[in-house]
Specification:
The chain has 496 residues and is of the alpha+beta class. The protein is built from 11 helices and 22 strands. The longest helix has 20 residues.
Length: 496
């Protein structure tokens, strides 16, 4: 059945205000009091309130005795309930040792001044980017989490996965000409939206919403939600002709089967997906994609395969689609240890530094396979434009089925491997001086991921179906910017 809401006052269908997340009745004005996130979800028993934590020292460096004494004084005053005295002690500890992140965190906890709290939270996070407590406090201070949601985020368990029964009501934007109601297209050369019927043309610009998010904040926000919805079809009402129809799973955009207008999903009543942050327009035409495939088929590896499999291509069908990618910038801490052994005496020197692995792009879909999509890298992410639905007037877009939390694990693994190749090397150099003393130098380096920021980007992919002379069918993907080609395995049509 469909996921609808019926007004208890007048019996008419209710709808959702996407700006306030309220479900209301447009007929009689009734507003549903419970939150959208609680609709039909499995109920968990109430969790006891989290007690106020006691001040502890997590600082890893060399802490001065005066700073430790001031912090211990503040901790003692916290247990006695003297918040004002504790605040003065923690301020003193931070003044004595500015890189004492624990002191800055407790100043932010106890201060009543929002500006002072934000200043010390920013300092604590600059000193310790993985400090989950500082992240929570900042999210509450900025309004991203409520205090109740922050308390729920301490729960290490994942949100309950709930399956929506039937189509879920959604809102969509219709891509039509405001002058003649004709279909719009994107002129990539001019960066304008145009109507092929009446000649309407408008600049193709959107709001600057291509902002990256800190992974730690996004994970805490996810943990604070009690339920995570798994949605199949979404039900929309066409704003062009008024027809009601469903958008298939995995689609961000679709055509109305009655009037043919392009519909782009903006959200659903369960808030089950996020809008993209940016989009990289197609720079390669369908003819250019077909030419790139023909060129790739002539490389030595493909020619050798033809000798054994007779996979000569008879026809090529090309379709363009925007594929969602989670793109991460990964900051790592690099620890380099140089060890020297001189006649059995060990001497070592350790240094730490930071490095950045930018633009780690992880596909957000399961089909085409992520492994095949990864072979299209790299993309020119400098060409990314702020996302707005009108970018999809000419090409459809897929909706992500792999969320950012799962994608972040792959990004972390790829970044760690790349950083190890760059930094983690063992060099042993043994030499003997003029006195006959033997010296062995060893250099080792390790990496540790510190923090990650990410965006959801739509990247252009041409998907080609290659029909071979022996009736086999192969999938070929083409990077819509660079023309790089990745081939799948040949299969019998219909899975024979």
């Amino acid at each position: 059945m469909s996921f609808h809401f019926t007004c208890p006052q007048c019996g008419q269908r209710m709808t959702m205000n996407f700006e306030t997340s309220q479900v209301y009745c447009p007929h009689c004005g009734y507003v549903r009091r419970d939150e959208i996130s609680a609709l039909g979800q499995p109920q968990r028993p109430p969790r006891p309130a989290r007690p106020t934590p006691l001040p502890v020292i997590t600082y890893q460096g060399e802490l001065s005795l005066r700073a430790r004494a001031a912090f211990d004084t503040g901790a003692d005053l916290v247990t006695r309930g003297d918040a004002a005295g504790a605040l003065r002690a923690f301020v003193k500890a931070a003044e004595i040792q500015h890189d004492f992140a624990d002191a800055h965190l407790w100043i932010a906890r106890l201060s009543a001044d929002p500006a002072q709290r934000m200043q010390h939270l920013d300092t604590a996070l600059a000193l310790d980017p993985n400090n989950g407590e500082a992240v929570r406090l900042k999210m509450v201070l900025t309004g991203r989490l409520t205090p109740e949601q922050a308390a729920r985020s301490y729960n290490e368990a994942e949100p309950v996965i709930a399956q929506a029964q039937g189509p879920v009501e959604a809102r969509a934007d219709v891509l039509i000409c405001p002058r003649c109601n004709g279909n719009l297209v994107v002129n990539l050369d001019k960066r304008r939206v145009e109507c092929r019927f009446c000649g309407y043309s408008a600049p193709h610009v959107g709001p600057d919403n291509a902002g990256a998010d800190l992974l730690t904040m996004a994970m805490l926000e996810r943990r604070a939600q009690p339920v995570r919805w798994n949605v199949g079809q979404r039900l929309i009402v066409c704003r062009q002709c008024g027809a009601e129809h469903t958008v298939p799973p995995g689609k961000l955009s679709a055509h109305c089967r009655f009037c043919g207008s392009t519909q782009v999903l903006l959200g659903d009543v369960l808030q089950s997906f996020e809008q993209p942050d940016g989009i990289a327009p197609f720079a390669l035409s369908p003819e250019g994609a077909a030419a790139a495939i023909q060129k790739a088929l002539k490389n030595p590896a493909q020619r050798l395969a033809n000798l054994f499999n007779t996979n000569r291509v008879q026809s090529v069908q090309v379709e363009g689609v925007y594929i969602p990618y989670w793109v991460f910038d990964v900051n790592v801490e690099v620890t380099t240890t140089q060890t020297q052994v001189l006649n059995g005496i060990l001497m070592s020197d350790t240094t730490k530094g930071m490095d950045l692995m930018p633009e780690v792009a992880i596909p957000g879909v399961k089909s085409p396979t992520p492994g095949l999509l990864m072979r299209l890298a790299p993309y020119r992410l400098g060409d990314v434009e702020p996302y707005q639905p009108k970018w999809l007037a000419s090409q459809p877009a897929a909706l992500y089925s792999i969320d950012f939390d799962r994608a972040s694990l792959d990004a972390r693994e790829l970044a760690a491997k790349a950083m190890r190749r760059k930094h983690e090397r063992v060099v042993e150099n043994t030499r003997t001086d003029e006195r006959g003393r033997q010296t062995t130098d060893v250099t080792r380096a390790t990496v540790r991921v510190q923090n990650m920021i990410f965006q959801l980007l739509l990247l252009p992919v041409w998907i080609a179906t290659l029909t071979e002379v022996d009736a086999d069918v192969r999938l070929a993907l083409v990077n819509g910017q660079t023309g790089k080609v990745a081939f799948g395995k040949a299969e019998r049509r219909g899975g024979e």
